[in-house]
Amino acid sequence: MQANMDRIPYLLTPEEMGRADELTIYAGTPGSVLMERAGGKVAAAAQQMVPDGGHILILCGPGNNGGDGFVAARQLDGAGFDVSVLLLCDPARLKGDAAQAFQNMQLPWSQLTEESLSLGLGKAGLVIDALFGAGLDRALEGMALKAVKMLRASKTPVLAVDLPSGLNGATGAALGAVFEAVRTVTFYRRKPGHLLEPGRSYCGIVEVVDIGIRDDVLKDINPKTFANEPFLWAAVFPVPGRRAHKYSRGHALVFGGQLQTTGASRLSAMAALRAGSGLVTMAVPPGALSTYAAHLTAIMVRPLKGEDALARALSDDRLSGCLIGPGYGTGSKTSVDVVSVLAQGRATVLDADALTCFEADTQRLFQAISACNTAGWAENAGATPKPAKVVLTPHEGEFKRLFPDLNVNNRLTAARQAAQASGAVVVLKGPDTVIAAPDGRAAINGNAPPWLATAGSGDVLAGLITGFLAQSVPAFEAAAMGVWCHGEAGSIAGAGLIAEDLPAAVQPVIAGLVAERAG
Ligand SMILES: NC(=O)C1=CN([C@@H]2O[C@H](COP(=O)(O)OP(=O)(O)OC[C@H]3O[C@@H](n4cnc5c(N)ncnc54)[C@H](OP(=O)(O)O)[C@@H]3O)[C@@H](O)[C@H]2O)[C@@H](O)CC1
Ligand SMILES: Nc1ncnc2c1ncn2[C@@H]1O[C@H](COP(=O)(O)OP(=O)(O)O)[C@@H](O)[C@H]1O
Ligand SMILES: [K+]
Prior knowledge:
Layout lengths: L9 E2 L2 H13 L4 H19 L5 E6 L3 H15 L3 E6 L8 H10 L3 E3 L2 H10 E7 L11 H13 L3 E4 L21 E5 L4 H4 L3 H5 L1 E5 L7 H5 L3 E3 L23 E5 L7 H12 L4 E6 L4 H7 L4 E4 L5 H6 L6 E4 L7 H12 L4 E3 L2 H4 L5 H13 L15 E3 L3 H7 L8 H12 L2 E4 L5 E3 L5 E3 L12 H14 L4 H19 L8 H17 L1
Parallel strand pairs: 2-3, 2-5, 3-4, 5-6, 6-7, 7-8, 9-18, 10-11, 10-13, 11-12, 13-14, 14-15, 15-16
Antiparallel strand pairs: 1-9, 16-17, 17-18
The protein binds ligand NPW, adenosine-5'-diphosphate and potassium ion.
EC number: 4.2.1.136, 5.1.99.6
Keywords: ATP-binding, Isomerase, Kinase, Lyase, Metal-binding, Multifunctional enzyme, NAD, NADP, Nucleotide-binding, Potassium, Transferase
Family: Belongs to the NnrE/AIBP family.
């Protein structure tokens, strides 16, 4: 495995984290030592959050999450903090390391009841939520459920251990009611639920702490889920060499729609150019040519005239990436054109109308994608299946049209299954965009501001991905870098942005990435 494994932004599912734990214990570090370190880091975070003399209320559950809470209580008490411990279950139910941590705590404690909680909340400056972490498999009920409501009403800040109780760490889904934390301390690596909504919103600031699990364990675990951060794709980020010319930087072809919908594809084309594609050409209906031409400067425009217009537009060997869909129309002509584009075997982004038009015949789309992926490969050559060349960029509505049987409430799994079913890289857009490849890799994006929820913003994203594909970046990485640059551009353009602001805001993002790589 690569050096710098510690910089690869892996996310571990709770199961993979359990495996990391097992491997570490097997290699000689007892579970009780891991728990001692975990509880110690929680205590350190709590100390930063309460002023001296503040009271800390610690809610402990029946499993190892509760065990971390007992350790934190003992250490905070030792550091001179005033703590009280409320236990959700009968102490006789505690097992293993958690039972041992409870024994070692040697502090007074009470059962978690409405009375004890209300008394504790009356004086607490901070609540530590150590009720449930990775082991929660069903909705909170009984006193744990009541505690969520009482804490919300009291507005006392919550520090969550590993995950806010009530959250599914693998999916970010709320199993029912969930604790709302201002800060979450998690161990070794983040979990998907820290990035996927609504989980991310419940976590507050997520702090990852080292508890002595060595990166060697990752070789065995081979995680396939990542946070979408530059280290994931920086090695293939395109930077022109000194002797570059515009053709060596790629040539993107963006298909434009009719006169009344020219804006969407123009935004895409501009973004493709900003992503660094050396040339961008728009292929447009003849009747709309003058409108396109009047609004474009660095981008070339050519009319799609005559029966074989599409084939001629695609015949230039120097074309290295295509985009079809934004503003293209949902009629049957669109699906015919998409199939023709894919038949050329070029790296292609399908967005918006190019997705919707296959609602009634998704198999036709998936066959065309498979033909695109295999085009250019000799039969029996190389790996099977072939690497994906196509990127689909659906928002949730478009996703449901193409994949009606998949459950979009579990966005990570749904995107993975969609990638596998279609043979394309799937970008399931939203506040927590998921990028999934047919080979099982998936990245979750975390830098997009809500200001990106504006008309035309998705067209810019499709153009960025096309621009990276045109520079020969592999499809998964092109999609991931497009999504990340889109998020950064959104933050730079900032509050009040409109889609037209985004392509220009991409320039400092690219300059920053290049500077970081050089430095
Ligand atoms: N992995 C690591 O490297 C490290 C992990 N560490 C820590 O361990 C934590 C994971 O511990 P865990 O596996 O014991 O699970 P946890 O979340 O405490 O709960 C399980 C208990 O809850 C119960 N239960 C479940 N749902 C319920 C419900 N709705 N209502 C009521 N009960 C419910 C379930 O029992 P059941 O009733 O299902 O038999 C079981 O007793 C992890 O988050 C981290 O904090 C650290 O110490 C450092 C190293
Ligand atoms: N709440 C949000 N926070 C961050 N990004 C968002 C949010 N809502 C939408 N986005 C992003 O904005 C873009 C919207 O794309 P899309 O829905 O296709 O819009 P349009 O079709 O108008 O261009 C996507 O990249 C999506 O990830
Ligand atoms: K917790």
